[in-house]
Amino acid sequence: MKQSPDMARLEQVLRSGRIVRGGFLGTDRRPLAEIIEADRAAVTRRGLTCERIAGRMAELTAAAMGRLGTWVDAGGGLQVRAEEHKGLIVCPWPHPARCRKRITTARRSETGQALQWTDLSIHLIGKHAFFQGRESAFRMEPDALIDFLGLTGEATAEDAGIWPTPKR
Ligand SMILES: [Zn+2]
After folding, report:
1. Is the pTM of this model over 0.85?
2. Would you kindly state where each structural domain of the chain is located, as residue ranges?
């Protein structure tokens, strides 16, 4: 896939450590457009949207904000904890968006499996379908994230047998 010059410039910013130490792309050598397309496709295959996933993450962060620094039961077998740091962080995309420097940890009570995200992660997923690069600090694999959050999508028309069987 050919990237636009704007996308190439953005990729440079994301690879650099200008906004976060180590950058947003980790060891991922794929072009930015390809990373985004692959993750968006994974989300679509599950019958979900990036907005829906980000919405659930934002709800969990909001639940954790009630009691900063302590585990809060968020329902659905999840516990969440948030910590906040001073200052704001800007979105690397060329538009004015700033996020609080907040880290949310969520864990499944049964298994102890935990995931961590920042407010910026939520924004990047919801607005830019960007789950960050492989082996970057806050990379989220769409499938693993969807399973962890317990989200289920709309069955596709094909799965649900909505398409009429062609008559012979
Ligand atoms: Zn943005």
Report:
1. yes
2. 5-149
